[in-house]
């Protein structure tokens, strides 16, 4: 039984995240999407809203669970008895941060391995930060942008 955690802020969830979720849940037996409840950050969507959105988009994926967490990712991974962490890589600009995070996590908990999936090319431009910026100025444009990609 292979269980992985796909952690993130998901503020909000994007088609890029959904792409990684769909591909990951074919590789592992169970995928836990860990939604960070970071009290130091000021998210646009509350953790409850982010969990709700993720549950809605993953409702047809039977081996995916959505669970909020706070504190360290490695502690959450240990609590969930997860075998690995999955992260998506969009471009070289993601690499430095992801490398540092995976090495730190590995140092904190040598049992936690990180596996990277490269984002599908049609979503490599997409980020929650961009979606948030557009959402704050205009509610219909992110939807228009997402529908065009489907
Ligand atoms: O979607 P994001 O914001 O890029 O996800 C970042 C996330 C949630 C994976 C990362 O910030 C995280 O794991 N935070 C939990 C705190 C932690 O464990 N920090 C040490 C790892 S460097």
Structure in words:
By secondary structure, the protein is of the alpha/beta class. Helix content is 45%, strand content 21%. The chain has helices at residues 15-27, 47-57, 73-79, 92-108, 128-137, 140-149, and strands spanning 3-8, 30-36, 64-69, 84-89, 113-118. A 5-stranded parallel β-sheet has the order 3-2-1-4-5, with helices on both faces. Strand 1, helix 1 and strand 2 form a beta-alpha-beta unit. The structure holds 4'-phosphopantetheine. 4'-phosphopantetheine binds next to strand 1 and helix 4.
Choose one word for the global shape.
globular
Radius of gyration: 15 Å
Q: Could you say which small molecules are bound to this protein?
A: 4'-phosphopantetheine
- End-to-end gap: 33 Å
Structural class: alpha/beta
Strand order of the largest sheet: 3-2-1-4-5
Strand content: 15-25%
Biggest sheet character: 5 strands, parallel
Find the count of extended strands (DSSP E, 2+ residues).
5
Low-confidence stretches: none
In terms of topology, how is this protein built?
Blueprint: E1 3-8, H1 15-27, E2 30-36, H2 47-57, E3 64-69, H3 73-79, E4 84-89, H4 92-108, E5 113-118, H5 128-137, H6 140-149
Parallel strand pairs: 1-2, 1-4, 2-3, 4-5
Bound molecules: 4'-phosphopantetheine.
4'-phosphopantetheine is lined by residues 7-9, 36, 72-73, 101, 104-105.
Notable features of this structure?
150 residues, alpha/beta, 5-stranded parallel beta sheet, 6 helices, 21% strand, binds 4'-phosphopantetheine
Describe what is shown at a glance.
The chain is of the alpha/beta class.
């Amino acid at each position: 039984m292979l269980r992985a955690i796909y952690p993130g802020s998901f503020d909000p969830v994007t088609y890029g995240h959904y792409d990684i979720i769909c591909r990951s849940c074919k590789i592992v037996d169970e995928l836990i999407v860990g939604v960070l409840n970071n009290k130091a950050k000021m998210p646009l969507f509350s953790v409850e809203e982010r969990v709700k959105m993720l549950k809605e988009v993953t409702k047809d994926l039977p081996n995916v669970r959505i669970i909020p967490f706070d504190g360290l990712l490695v502690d959450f991974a240990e609590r969930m008895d997860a075998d690995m962490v999955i992260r998506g890589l969009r471009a070289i600009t993601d690499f430095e941060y992801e490398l540092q995070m995976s090495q730190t996590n590995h140092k904190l908990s040598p049992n936690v391995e990180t596996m990277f999936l490269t984002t599908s090319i049609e979503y490599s431009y997409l980020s929650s930060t961009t979606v948030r910026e557009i959402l704050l100025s205009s509610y219909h444009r992110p939807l228009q942008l997402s529908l065009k990609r489907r």
